[in-house]
Design goal:
13 strands; five-stranded parallel β-sheet; four-stranded antiparallel β-sheet
């Protein structure tokens, strides 16, 4: 026990000094830094992470143990018998000397080893007029010495109580620090597991990601080459569609005038959530199927893809003198086959234009698709987009009804007043191309050609009326 107490005193003296405090702060800070660095190595899967955590946490444990030996500063509580309150003025009751009161043998003791009679009487509260015998003086001296020893013991007990309280406070602080360290370690382990899972997923899919990236670059370069060739050939407009499901779900039935067969859409006859098989897009097969289906994609992600496509393609189109014209969704449903749609309301054309203000960012204005939408007014949309010079060319067709149920009909029997629409194009200075589209089939030897001829004849007559000012 003596050796343990000796070592304890050595540690306490070391920690109470400036050198000890500097050592403690240095080791504590370096240990914490090594713990954090070791956790970082673990997260990044670098070599040495386990060793760093072991060294750092071991250092912290040692510092916490040394903290238990940190001796608190003494705060002496001097009893009121000393008028000055200065500890140097305290009589040496434990030094072995006698209290000098009056004459006798006790009076022979050196003055520096005792107290005077007046001081002794004052210490015990006796009046100065009372005389004491030698035996009384001896007894009084022994009593005062015992009182001094008891007072000293009480003082040491008070110091021990304070030290105990400080030790308990330090242990409580250490407990809180260990709890926070445990919480931090748990959080770091969770982050490490998450990062490890992400790393594994990236590693496992790196080959397919590389192949997809390579395919994307190749396809974009092919599209750019097509646009450049179209520009050299004098082709000034290039239509495209950016939805995944494409034109899908239409039926054929005798819905036009005279029982002519036309294209119709009735959502009640379809499974609108039928997934798209892998290897297909826009009703076309681009790769062999594997029995799976196209993974989910959000509307925000699809619009982000469109923006990246436009940002890369539009500079090439501008340089080639070609307009890229986006066709609206047909049918204009918000979702189709578990995929979002792009332009299923007229206002979404404004969003398209806001993605990139390039003059080559244009619209393929399909009158039938816009009329099928549940919002907007076709004539107002003509004024809006033709007025802004954003219409590249027009699909000139008529329909009856709106989604989720409509029929494509002859130009002169649908919901659109085609002559009024033509006058709005003319009023807004539109100078692009109008193309007849989706004409009903007329029963004869050449049904499609007969229907298309009827549409062209109607359009020619309407243009003549415009030229003569009859509209």
């Amino acid at each position: 026990m003596g050796k343990i107490k000796k070592y304890k005193n050595v540690i306490e003296r070391f920690l109470s000094g400036e050198t000890g405090q500097r050592f403690f702060n240095f080791a504590y800070s370096i240990g914490a830094a090594v713990v954090i660095l070791g956790a970082l190595f673990k997260i990044l899967h670098l070599e040495g992470g386990n060793e760093m955590l072991t060294i750092g946490m071991g250092t912290e444990v040692l510092m916490f143990i040394l903290t238990a030996f940190d001796r608190p500063e003494h705060d002496y509580k001097w009893f009121p018998v000393l008028a000055s309150g200065d500890p140097d003025d305290r009589p040496d009751f434990a030094g072995g000397g006698n209290i000098v009161i009056g004459g006798g043998a006790a009076a022979q003791a050196p003055a520096q080893q005792g107290v005077t009679e007046a001081e002794a009487k004052a210490a015990v509260g006796l009046p100065q007029g009372i005389d004491l015998t030698e035996e009384d003086s001896r007894s009084l001296s022994e009593s005062i010495a015992k009182m001094a020893a008891a007072s000293d013991q009480l003082s040491r007990m008070a110091e021990l109580t304070d030290a105990t309280q400080q030790y308990l406070s330090q242990m409580a602080g250490i407990s809180e620090q260990m709890q926070r360290l445990n919480e931090t370690t748990t959080a770091l382990n969770q982050v490490s597991e998450t990062l490890l899972g992400s790393y594994r997923a990236i590693t496992e899919n790196s080959e397919s990601i590389t192949q997809s990236s390579t395919g994307y670059v190749e396809q974009m370069e092919n599209l750019k080459a097509i646009i450049r060739r179209a520009g050299r050939l004098g082709i000034r407009a290039f239509g495209y569609n950016f939805s995944l499901a494409g034109v899908w779900g239409h039926q054929k039935r005798a819905a036009a005038r005279g029982g002519a067969t036309s294209t119709c859409f009735d959502a009640s006859l379809l499974d609108l959530n039928a997934p798209i098989p892998n290897g297909q897009v826009w009703n076309m097969t681009y790769a062999p199927g594997d029995g799976g289906f196209m993974p989910p994609v959000s509307s925000a992600e699809l619009w982000d893809r469109l923006k990246r496509f436009l940002d890369e393609m539009l500079p090439v189109a501008e340089e080639a003198g070609v307009e890229l014209a986006l066709h609206p969704d047909d049918p204009p449903m918000p979702e189709l086959r578990c995929t979002p749609r792009m332009v299923y309301q007229p206002s979404l054309y404004d969003r398209l234009i806001s993605l990139n203000p390039s003059p080559a960012n244009m619209l393929e204005f399909c009158m039938g698709s816009l009329q099928e939408m549940t919002e907007g007014n076709l004539y107002d949309e003509i004024d809006h987009f033709a007025g802004e010079k954003r219409i590249s060319y027009v699909h000139f067709r008529n329909v009856r009804g709106k989604v989720p149920c409509y029929d494509e009909v002859f130009l002169d029997e649908g919901d659109i007043d085609m002559l009024r629409a033509l006058s709005r194009f003319q009023a807004n200075g539109f100078e692009g191309v109008l193309i007849p589209d989706h004409t009903p089939l007329i029963t004869c030897r050449a049904p499609w050609y007969a229907g298309m001829s009827y549409a062209l004849g109607y359009m020619r007559a309407a243009f003549t009326m415009l030229d003569k000012g009859l509209l």
